[in-house]
């Protein structure tokens, strides 16, 4: 495995200097969904987090979705990501569509990973056996740290897809969020999830609030933030709701089976509104930032663009009602990123995270970073998060991000907006310094030294 230098076309001396500084600067990675390394090493198949244990797993997020959009039948995608086909059979399924997505951000991140981690320029019929073998050879004890080191990443924030808070085996490398989705969405799966983790079966609102209090009391000092991706299922317009009203609604959900449909959309929204705002209040008490999914949705064929478009408008009320709580607006709100520049320019408690954005659309990422730095104080942005379940593609995504950061700053220097000598400190700030400062937990540091 070898680090690949960033670069693009003809470069001036200024471009080369900026590219070198960007390459040398470590990232603090503010968003991943990594499963624990021991689970990768064990190789136990899990339909959501490890559906197969071969090179196809690297496509799970997000290149697989581009394959379907390019024409791959959904049934073939399920077979491709499953454990039953041989490597050759999997390659034959996707080969015609891989050619169509090699240029997308998702495809480029994988190609950089093939090159930098496996030493192969591309996925082809000829390189496939070597890639398949190198995938197996790479998955060895310590490979998370090796790959993150190769990508020059000094640490990751992880939003676990398996637990509300994951007590990681690698606390020096991985910091975890508390996932509040299961605490405020009110689905049957959420009730079952909480029962499996805590043994509790709340039947009243007060009992459910005790569960929320338990998670914050137990993990608040260990967490780096709280995270919610509830924007996948509803708008972010969380309105104030009285506890008395929420208490009347909760028993209709509490049996988790027969009465789940007793709440209509308005009542369900009201209950979610109350619980979400309660979680935000607890995050504020713990000094934890609140990370919110905004913008485009992962997957294919499901996004309601009108609701996505409303994210920036809807979040204004949260920013106003919780002025002492810090909010991290994720994924630049793509494709409505200009509204999010306006939000972070106006609200002191709003910051932007470019996680995932570089591979959604690398060119939009360059454009966004330029416009953001011209409008918003430079301490309010975090410039990288891979947003992967597998560790290997983080390498390729980080390379795409470094190239984009270097291009954005080089263009600003060439256009006369920023002086070259000012970029060195700015690079360190936006790639690592902002995250280290923003997510610092003085109360945890103090407790550690008691």
Notes on the protein architecture:
The protein is of the alpha/beta class. It has helices at 13-24, 37-42, 63-69, 74-80, 87-101, 105-118, 128-138, 143-150, 181-184, 188-198, 205-219, 243-254, 265-286, 305-309, 311-321, 337-346, 357-360, 362-375, 392-414, 420-438, 442-448; strands at 27-32, 153-158, 174-179, 225-228, 290-293, 327-330, 350-353, 381-382. It is built from 21 helices and eight strands. The protein has an eight-stranded parallel beta sheet. Helix 16 links the parallel strand 6 and strand 7. Helix 3 (63-69) packs across helix 5 (87-101) and helix 6 packs across helix 19 (392-414). The model is unreliable at 256-261 and 443-450 (pLDDT under 50).
- Number-wise, the strands total 8
Give the uncertain stretches in residue-range form.
256-261, 443-450
Assign the CATH architecture of the domain at 151-239 and 278-448: Alpha-Beta Barrel
CATH class of the domain at 151-239 and 278-448: Alpha Beta
Q: What is the overall shape?
A: globular
- Across the major sheet, the strand order is 1-2-3-4-5-6-7-8
The CATH homologous superfamily of the domain at 151-239 and 278-448 is named: Metal-dependent hydrolases
Radius of gyration: 22 Å
Strand content: 5-15%
CATH topology of the domain at 151-239 and 278-448: TIM Barrel
Q: Give the averaged pLDDT, no decimals.
A: 94
Percent range for helical residues?
Answer: 40-55%
Biggest sheet details: 8 strands, parallel
Sheet/helix structural class: alpha/beta
Summed up, the helix count is: 21
Helix-strand topology string: HEHHHHHHHEEHHHEHHEHHEHEHHEHHH
Distance between the termini: 42 Å
């Amino acid at each position: 495995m070898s680090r690949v230098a960033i670069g693009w076309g003809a470069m001036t001396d200024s471009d080369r200097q900026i590219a070198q500084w960007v390459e040398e600067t470590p990232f603090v990675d503010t968003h991943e969904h990594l499963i624990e390394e021991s689970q990768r090493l064990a190789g136990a198949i899990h339909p959501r987090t490890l559906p197969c244990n071969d090179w196809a797993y690297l496509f799970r997020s997000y290149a697989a979705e581009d394959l379907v959009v390019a024409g791959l039948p959904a049934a073939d995608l399920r077979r491709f990501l499953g454990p039953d086909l041989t490597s050759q059979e999997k390659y034959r399924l996707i080969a015609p569509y891989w050619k169509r997505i090699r240029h997308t951000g998702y495809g480029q991140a994988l190609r950089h990973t093939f090159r930098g981690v496996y030493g192969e320029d591309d996925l082809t019929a000829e390189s496939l056996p070597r890639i398949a073998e190198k995938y197996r050879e790479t998955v060895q004890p310590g490979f998370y740290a090796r790959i993150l080191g190769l990508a020059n990443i000094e640490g990751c924030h992880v939003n676990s897809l398996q637990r509300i808070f994951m007590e990681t085996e690698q606390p020096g490398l991985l910091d975890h969020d508390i996932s509040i989705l299961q605490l405020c969405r009110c689905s049957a799966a959420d009730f079952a999830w909480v029962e499996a983790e805590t043994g509790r079966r709340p039947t009243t609102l007060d009992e459910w609030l005790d569960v929320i209090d338990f998670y914050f009391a137990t993990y608040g000092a260990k967490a780096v933030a709280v995270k919610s991706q509830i924007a996948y299922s509803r708008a972010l317009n969380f309105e104030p709701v009285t506890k008395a009203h929420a208490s009347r609604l909760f028993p209709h959900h509490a049996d988790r089976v027969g009465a789940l449909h007793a709440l209509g959309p308005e009542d369900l929204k009201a209950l979610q509104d109350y619980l979400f705002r309660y979680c935000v209040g607890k995050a504020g008490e713990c000094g934890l930032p609140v990370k919110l999914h905004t913008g485009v949705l992962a997957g294919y064929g499901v996004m309601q663009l009108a609701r996505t478009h409303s994210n920036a408008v809807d979040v204004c009320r949260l920013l106003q009602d919780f002025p002492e709580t810090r909010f991290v607006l994720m994924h630049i709100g793509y494709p409505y990123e200009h509204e999010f520049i306006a939000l972070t320019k106006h609200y002191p408690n709003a910051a932007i995270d470019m996680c995932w954005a570089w591979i959604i659309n690398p060119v939009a990422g360059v454009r966004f970073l330029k416009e953001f730095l011209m409008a918003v104080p430079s301490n309010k942005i975090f410039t990288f998060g891979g947003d992967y379940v597998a560790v290997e593609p983080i390498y390729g995504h980080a390379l795409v991000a470094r190239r984009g950061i270097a291009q954005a700053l080089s263009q600003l220097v060439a256009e006369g907006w920023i002086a070259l000598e000012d970029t060195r400190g700015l690079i360190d700030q936006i790639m690592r310094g902002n995250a280290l400062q923003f997510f610092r937990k003085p109360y945890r540091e103090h407790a550690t030294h008691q």
